[in-house]
Amino acid sequence: MKLHKKNAGFTLIELMIVVAIIAIIASVAIPRLMAARLSANESAAISTLRSLTSAQAQVQSSGAIDTDGDGAGEYGSFGELAGTVPCRVSAAGAAAAGAAGTDELNPPVLSAAFGNVANSQVTRSGYIFQMFLPDNARAPIAEDATGGFGATFPDPDNGEVLWCCYAWPVNFTQTGNRAFFVNQAGDIYQYNNKGAANYSGTGSAPAGDEIFQTATDMGSPVCNVAGGALGTDGENWVPVQ
């Protein structure tokens, strides 16, 4: 007598049970993975701003950029710090564009990846970074679209003591939540990005003076929530603990 083997495949009910179990596991795991990625991106942004603080201090103290020739170094742009564009030089005591192949920072104080400037911004690990240097009225100037400065130069004297950088998510809630800020003082600030101002992507970027108490003045105090003084964007920027 011929024996028939039992079908080893899944029944419809068994398949439905497996699918349901997978869906439950995914509903728990995916949000956790996304939250972990957001946290990792925010931590990387903070670390980048700390590294940037050290890089700016190094280039300023070295005097590698000194556009008025007074012996006091000035702060740089992403392109200049990464050595991908020439540093500004002094021409008869005034700022001028450096020569390609001659005036690049060597060795650079940031990796070449930070020289990949597009629309005056650098994108890394789910965050966009933008550097600002001051003009003669201490108003913020963004570097050129592809890095460095070639048309409007920062003020030499103010550029010796002031700089700032913002970092915000490429896509709010998907690549990061908080926005961050740092300047020459070295203190990193954060904004939960959930107020009226929502910084996300290239289309919703912070202006250079958002955190400062006085509009268009990089030399004014930054937001002080405890003292009742907000930034020009009206939001609460607080120190990162």
Topology (SSEs and partners):
Blueprint: H1 12-62, H2 78-81, E1 89-91, E2 94-96, E3 122-124, E4 127-134, E5 140-142, E6 164-169, E7 179-183, E8 189-191, E9 238-239
Antiparallel strand pairs: 1-2, 3-4, 4-5, 4-6, 6-7, 7-8, 8-9
What's the quick description here?
The protein has 241 residues and is an alpha+beta fold. Helices cover 23% and strands 15% of the residues. It has helices at 12-62, 78-81, and strands at 89-91, 94-96, 122-124, 127-134, 140-142, 164-169, 179-183, 189-191, 238-239.
Q: Could you describe the 3D structure shown?
A:
There is one protein chain. By secondary structure, the protein is of the alpha+beta class. It has one domain (14-239). Helices cover 23% and strands 15% of the residues. The chain contains 2 helices and 9 strands, in the order ααβββββββββ. The chain has helices at residues 12-62, 78-81; strands spanning 89-91, 94-96, 122-124, 127-134, 140-142, 164-169, 179-183, 189-191, 238-239. Strands 3, 4, 5, 6, 7, 8 and 9 form a 7-stranded antiparallel beta sheet that branches. Strands 1-2 form a two-stranded antiparallel ribbon. Strand 1 and strand 2 form a beta hairpin. It is elongated, with a radius of gyration of 24 Å. The N and C termini lie far apart (79 Å). The relative contact order is 0.12. The mean pLDDT is 91.
